[in-house]
Amino acid sequence: MLVLGGTGEARDLATMLQADRVPVVSSLAGRVSDPALPVGTVRVGGFGGVSGLVGYLTEHAIQAVVDATHPFAAQISGHAAQACTAAGVPLLRLQRPSWREHPLSGEWTWVSSHAEAAQVGTSLGRRPFLSTGRQTLRDFLSWADRYVLVRVVQLPDWELPTAWEVLSSRGPYHYRNEHRVLAGHQIDLLVTKDSGGPLTQAKLQAAHDLGIPVLVVSRPQLPDGVPVVTDPDAARRWVHARSGTGSLHPDDAVASPAPDR
Ligand code: NAP
User: Is the omega angle on the peptide bond into residue 257 within 30 degrees of 0, that is, cis?
Assistant: First the structure.
């Protein structure tokens, strides 16, 4: 089994499979210097594109792949779909539920890219809180001359605008913290992406309670034809079904959903 990781869901799945004595390798991109590590065997670094991943699958006799990467890690998901098709290896997408279903989602402004968020957000607030992640910050450089509160797990390797204030921390984040961050910095716009799941969603309720508008970047589209589950336990059952040690309930996996915009 190969689990493409970098998420809490991937770590949970690795823990379950290890307990089930399923041989599993977790793969991380190596983006952060002190990653939260899954249990068991871990490999770090890119595969070298689709052909590199095909080579890895073949060389290591991988029998199935779970793509449990972050919803915005679109490139590796695309590569996994192409490589698994080429190598004839079954692939499952494990992706946490979208915030489209969040009870407050109807109040938010949805955009289709970070670049669009930078454009639209200019007129929505004067003191934005940018929580879209380190890799998206260049998309907001048109805001270089204004105050922006940025929160990242790890600073980028380039210098951020001096007008920006940086909080460096890793979730999960709780309501009280998020309320304090937003109120304490007089934030008047929350910019986020549809990472989904519960670990970073407290800011959404805090923004609502403080009357702060929310701008959300929609998820990239999933590759066609890859079955999707939303929780690690369903992925675990899929793995057992592949190895003949269990069965996959028909409700557990669905065909790739339509893009959510
Ligand atoms: P990406 O843009 O989709 O992928 C860029 C390249 O990084 C891929 O082509 C691949 O290189 C390599 N890569 C990505 N994930 C990998 C993995 N799990 N194992 C081995 N190689 C991987 O990815 P990203 O958005 O930079 O995300 C990188 C990692 O951070 C992922 O594991 C993801 O789950 C995690 N993460 C991302 C976000 C986010 O907001 N994007 C948030 C939290 C965690 P090759 O082409 O050389 O194989």
Answer: no
